Amino acid sequence: MRVTATSWALVLSALTGGSDTEVAAWTTTTATTTPIGASSTKTISQKLPTSSSLLVASQDLEETLEARIVEDPSNRSEQQSHTEQEHVPYVIARGDGSTGGGGVPMPRASKDDGLRRPKVNAEMPEGRPSWFRVPAPSLQAESRYNEVKDSLKNLELHTVCEEAQCPNIGECWSGGTGTIMLLGDTCTRGCMFCAVNTDSKPPPPDPFEPFKTAEAVTKWGVDYIVLTSVDRDDIPDGGAQHFAHTVELLKHKKPELLVECLVSDFQGDLRSVETLATSGLDVYAHNVETVERLQKFVRDPRAGYHQSLSTLEHAKKAKPGLYTKTSLMLGLGETKEEVLQTMRDMRAIDVDVVTFGQYLRPTENHLSVVEYIKPEVFDYYRQVGEEMGFKYVASGPMVRSSYKAGEFYLEHMIKTERQAATASSVGSDPI
């Protein structure tokens, strides 16, 4: 596609509400014709104002661009025109008010494909089902909930429970544990389902965070802890060594503690995966999040289905016997067969644990819920998962990847299997 400077002026005018005079200075600095591509996208992002008026849903902007852009009609087939429309530059809304990241413009689905896709500002299912009920946090000053909250505050630690607005925070904190989020509270990616803050250049990690984490967890007196983090694409190893130091300190303070690390894909860097996998942790977790077809609509463009699977596969290769775990959100328009195929793909790389939970929209600027999945469907996936050979399947509307009830089961399962392995080894010893 080739777009004239006048065409870009129309686009800018549509986006900013400005007049032709206001954008004239920009158009005069543009070549007579500009092919749409990476370079033109970069130029536009540098020139456009950063006011909140530009933070529009991607599918709305796509419709505006299609209506405004003047195309060069020469040497174009109908198929070429359709393909090029999918590569029109766009500005995308983020739930926290910042720009960048998160999905791509919604392509026009063929009328007969029968597949659903999530969108921002789409119509939500009417009402919230009755099965969405969670315990409220305790209001008593001496409760375990407040004890956990105070210890996190005093040590300046973050939790995914708060940052991602997890609905189970009352249950988990009242049980004396939380999921600590390392590497700060600001993510370098912008997935369209997540409420965590985003920025291309977050503050550097706190070098004392591993020590603070070990101190907090030891005080809680738990036997199983989950560590997670934001994506830190600005750090060469993605924060893998920071995680490894934290695990080593935890194991030093309490050797019997079971540690699960729910981490990013490290941009597919298998060296970073290996750094963490061999650090002494017990469960290596990374979330695939959704089925393959919906990846580009739900996750940041830097994430990917096969990239995620490759990290889970390499973790087990780097440390044989290491448990691997992943999670999927349901209710984003996926089909039953797509979910089952994802489960087959997970078993093909020997993933041990999978969890399924209902996607809930954190704000109106995030993807709308396509469907509320019924409890019996979650139970169906649990049964199928167990038949496929997963060692543990947690499946339910309020289940999350780091979830207290699941941690209890994993703790029991890991300890039982290790005790059995030790007994078998002693029994086979000829001495």
From TrEMBL:
Pfam family membership, one: Radical_SAM
Cofactor note as given: Binds 2 [4Fe-4S] clusters per subunit. One cluster is coordinated with 3 cysteines and an exchangeable S-adenosyl-L-methionine.
GO molecular function: 4 iron, 4 sulfur cluster binding; lipoate synthase activity; metal ion binding
Reactions it catalyzes: [[Fe-S] cluster scaffold protein carrying a second [4Fe-4S](2+) cluster] + N(6)-octanoyl-L-lysyl-[protein] + 2 oxidized [2Fe-2S]-[ferredoxin] + 2 S-adenosyl-L-methionine + 4 H(+) = [[Fe-S] cluster scaffold protein] + N(6)-[(R)-dihydrolipoyl]-L-lysyl-[protein] + 4 Fe(3+) + 2 hydrogen sulfide + 2 5'-deoxyadenosine + 2 L-methionine + 2 reduced [2Fe-2S]-[ferredoxin]
GO terms for biological process, alphabetical: protein lipoylation
Residues of the Radical SAM core domain: 173-391
Comp. bias intervals (Basic and acidic residues): 71-87
CDD domains assigned: Radical_SAM
Binding residues annotated for [4Fe-4S] cluster 1, in chain numbering: 161, 166, 172, 402
Signal peptide, first to last residue: 1-21
Residue ranges of coiled coil: none
Enzyme nomenclature, EC number: 2.8.1.8
Annotated region described as Disordered, given as residue ranges: 71-133
Keywords annotated in UniProt: 4Fe-4S, Iron, Iron-sulfur, Metal-binding, Mitochondrion, S-adenosyl-L-methionine, Signal, Transferase
Main location: mitochondrion
Cofactor section: [4Fe-4S] cluster
GO cellular component, one term: mitochondrion
Subcellular location: Mitochondrion
Residues where [4Fe-4S] cluster 2 binds: 187, 191, 194
Record pathway: Protein modification; protein lipoylation via endogenous pathway; protein N(6)-(lipoyl)lysine from octanoyl-[acyl-carrier-protein]: step 2/2
Stated family: Belongs to the radical SAM superfamily. Lipoyl synthase family.
PANTHER family (UniProt xref): LIPOYL SYNTHASE, LIPOYL SYNTHASE, MITOCHONDRIAL
Name of the molecule in the record: Lipoyl synthase, mitochondrial
Source organism per UniProt: Nitzschia inconspicua
